[in-house]
Design goal:
alpha+beta; 22 strands; 19% helix; elongated
Amino acid sequence: MVALGLALGLVMPLILWVRRSAADSNTWMVVLDPMKPGGPFEVMAEQTIGRMNFTLRVHDVLFGDVWLCSGQSNMEMTVSQIFNATREMSDTAAYQSVRILSVSLVQAEQELEDLAGLDLPWSKPTSENLGHGNFQYTSAVCWLFGRYLYDTLQYPLGLVSSSWGGTPIEAWSSQRSLKACGISKQGFIPPDSLGGPSKHSVLWNAMIHPLRTMALKGMIWYQGESNTNYNMDLYNCTFPALIEDWRQAFHHGSQGQTERFFPFGFVQLSSYLSNTTSGDGFPQIRWHQTADFGFAPNVRMPNTFMAVAMDLGDRNSPFGSIHPRDKQTVAYRLHLGARAVAYGEKHLTFQGPLPEKMEHLVDKGLLNLTYYQKIHVQRQDNKIFEISCCSDHQCTWLPAPMNASTTWTLALDVRPCHGTLGALRYAWTTWPCEYKQCPLYHPSSTLPAPPFVAFMTHQTPGHHSKDAR
């Protein structure tokens, strides 16, 4: 019997499951020799029992790269919910070699060996299955990411959607990875953050673990909103731990066909308008998504890439501002990271500018930032940079208005601080700027400068320099 997953339109079927009989639970795995991307092909499985021969054929099989897409509702949003939905849903004719699969919403107390169900088996993209309904079937971010990649690669891709809205990272984490972060028991999740399953590991068990035999090229992740008020301070552990655990599971489950450190992309949280959410939750999660480095990849998160989305806020989204409709830009920024990290494309800018040095010019009342990339100052902003001003063992965050700039540097006015400069932070708020109107971008790629916090140490009178990356 060929297991669920080797179906019409399967991409890159390097793993073939064969069961000896309906009564026998032992499972055999056949690893096919890797093939060059292409197709369509026919895959045939034969079984001989005594004098009887059984043959199963699967048609229209493609070989290429498979990407897994997971997370909560912003990954779950379908093409029918985004900007220019009608045009996007109709743009499928050139992408029939991009195949899509969507996992059913299921939770389980124990790790499942096989999926309990599929909302959409391996299929060619159509306007119907791309826009089946709100938060149903195919992820818009997943689809658009694959489409952008296909435009570059020009060979078959498989996209697997396995997402559930309103879910914390703990539901997607195995007990192993939670234990690594000191989480052993279910904590209390405030009612206003619920929307999907919150019990620890139930989605890992049912919606990720059964996929571990797939031969993946990589995966993308969009999650974090549900952790802005649940285990927020642990996200800098739970997220890197999830990445490491999933990499181990897929590498071993695929008999080494999936690379041990396969590329892992993620979306840094966008903006949100709310009267109830703590103003520090979103910026804290954004920072923790990078393991507190401010950029990816880094030493704790190797072979990762990040799409900054804080400048894509959508005040008028009919699905609430927490669900911005511009998923095209999100997917485009993700695909840049994939091209650089997963496919090794050289000299491709996939990160926005971050400062690499800070100099406190005390006599001028300025803090001079030197960036490791060129910067484009789109507009002046008097509040988006903040300094921690310390005196009498107390520190207060004060605005540091933007001053003069060059191609590589930016000066901030720190004269309002009459004490000691303790730290600098950028875009440390739930809603840092209006749509694509943050002040700093990379000049040619139009990638926004990501949020960061950098602490000032070893200050000397008249001058201070620090590596801010």
